[in-house]
Fold this protein.
Amino acid sequence: MIPVYDADLFTDEALTDPYDVYRTLRDLGPVVRLTAHDVYAVTRYADVRTVLEDPEAFCSRRGVGFNDLINDAGRGTTLMSDGEQHERLREVIGRPLTPKALAEVRPDAQALADRLADELALRGSFDAVCDLAEVLPATWVPDLLGWPQEGRDRLIEWGAANFDALGPANARAEAAGAGVVEMAAYAHHLAESPLPKGSMAAGILEAAARGDIAVEQCPFAIIDYLGPSLDTTVSALGNAIWLFATHPDQWQLLRREPDRVKHAFNEVLRIETPISAFTRVTTRPATIGGVELPAGARVMVSYASANRDERRWDDPDTFDITRNSAAHIAFGYGDHACAGMGLARLEGAAVLGALVERIEHFELSGPPVRKLNNLIRSFASLPVTVRVSAPTDRAGVPPSDSPASWPPPLT
Ligand code: HEM
């Protein structure tokens, strides 16, 4: 018998603090029937990987969202395709996101992050969401991708709408409908526009011109960049600042050992996973953790729960940047693992690296406000005050008693 869980996983309360519910689901069994959402939940780390590494049995082409409307609309994207079509699209959108291609843009990201961190250090108090986490994803990344200035002020709203719409057919998904339609119209418009030469999205149009993909696939491939390139990274950076502000010992550790920045970003992604879950559909009877599911079953794979599974992680609810979190699955796993993870990691390392050189201490200066979304875990606002390090300590060694007034206030 497959255990049943009746409660709604997407109420404000459940989204604000989902971790007890995830533990309950993990303890109930490898597969749990969620009656409120008409899906089978897979929440243990090993089982989530089993599903993700078998796209033949657990397909994406019938949609990875929780409702039919978005699953029909998203068909044709890399995210919601399989087999040869997925391979071809993935090859095209992945080309500018390889480590080699990204190495060329890394210095720009670092220079921007350094400038941003200098500016924030001077200000002393700021909102870590709009003044920090959103800056690179909403300005530098759109430049890289090749989006025109027109429409950029809507990117944050569209990104959130996209992830709300992928959730179950609740009020939040319904309210997101207009934003998703606008984003799709923007993608169609871009597919017919001359995009800046050398930009990532221009590569999609060039691939179509060469015949590598069909011209009709261009708007979908553009949505593959538009949809997930913003909110995910904003979420990760905001979560990082919140975690370090509330765990000052971990920030001090990172300041003593700044080489740990990449590991620290992994630990942030593990413990506060930006995308909570997607779904798959079984193409035939399939077994997960010894439990047999029929063909045609929609299965929820919870990245966020897997990353807190006590069967995989010691003391999983503790934020510990010394742990080896590299095996987290915040970027998914298998054929559909995040195509933009290199870019997200690059942004994370650039921003945290710049901050760790300059900021001695973060403190929350007001109550953090959550931005509740069906699938993305993030903050709407995160007011912080920082104490900065003296310039001589920029090697990453924390000063013992550096003056709180450096740099001097602007007059
Ligand atoms: C911290 C930031 C990010 C997180 C946590 C994240 C997370 C994910 C996850 C969990 C998946 C797997 C979907 C699945 O299993 O079906 C995914 C796929 C994808 N992501 Fe990301 N992502 C991030 C940033 C980005 C960025 C910056 C881009 C674009 C430049 C991007 C583009 C994509 C694309 C195109 C896919 C679909 C890949 C495929 O289906 O083959 N992501 N992402």
Residues 4-393 form a domain with the Cytochrome p450 fold (CATH 1.10.630.10). Confidence is low (pLDDT under 50) at residues 392-411. The pocket of protoporphyrin IX containing FE is lined by residues 52, 60, 64, 78-79, 90, 93, 224-225, 228-229, 232-233, 236, 274-275, 278, 303, 330-332, 336, 338-340, 343-344 (CB under 6 Å).
